[in-house]
Amino acid sequence: MASGPIDLSTFNPTLLNCDIVSTKPSKPGDKARTVVKLSYGPSRRAIAFVTPPCVVDWPKLHGDGNFGTQFGPTEVDKAQYTMGVTDKLLPTGEHEMAPYFDALRAIDDALVACVHANQKELLSSRGLSKEEVRGKLQATVKPKYEDDALAYNRQNMSTRKFTWNGDERTLRITDVRKQPLAEPVAHQDVCVVATQVDCVYTGLMGSMFGIKWSIAEVMLLKRAEHKPQPGSDAFVDYAVPSWAKADFP
Q: Is residue 1 part of a domain?
């Protein structure tokens, strides 16, 4: 598949591919599984993006990631690096995160249509309407409410600390000069993040399904204490270096 991030300005949902694939058993006694493979365009390139500048939510990108946290694993070899990206900074008018989140919602929509058409194989269900299938989707973009009012939207991302071969993985985390970041990325820092579809999962909690997005790279733009306030025009200063769009891992 072609590599590199998809340009949000030219993203076309009609070019999404949802292929139904039967996996081979990994060991004797295992059954073959039917899974969905997502790709983009006639070359079936990986679905990958570089986010616009955004506030990050509770990143765990260093050390043992989410190991030992409240909802994290109790075994270090199952640790993941995790983070959320949000549209928490909402200046007057359009926000840069809107086209990105719209693209993610369009990918979810394509997945719902695919699962609906193949619900017997993927959900062990028959006769569900598309909206009933959508009700089983773990949406990529999740709204967060405070006092019953929409506060912001959030996307979760995660990458295993260890590869399936047991090798430790190191995320590339840099400043705007492309130098390794000395201090950890913190809650509410402003970053851009290179992310891509890791896999489509089915069978969660019985019959739930969704997309797992991985973290490929993070670039810090501003620390939380220096981020602009809602309604400001400070986003004009958030020039994303060209390497963030061209030099995708």
A: no
Domain boundaries, position 52:
8-246
Domain count, the chain: 1
Q: What is the sign, positive or negative, of the torsion defined by CA atoms of 10, 235, 216, 201?
A: negative
- The residue assigned the tokens 């269900």 is 125
- Position 230 in a domain: yes
- Enter the pTM of the model: 0.88
Query: pLDDT of 109-119, one tens digit each?
Result: 999 999 999 99
Q: CATH number of the domain at 109, please.
A: 2.40.50.140
pLDDT digit string, tens, across residues 120-156? 999 989 999 999 999 999 999 999 998 888 889 999 9
Residues of the chain with pLDDT under 70: 1-3, 25-26, 90-95, 205-206, 228-249
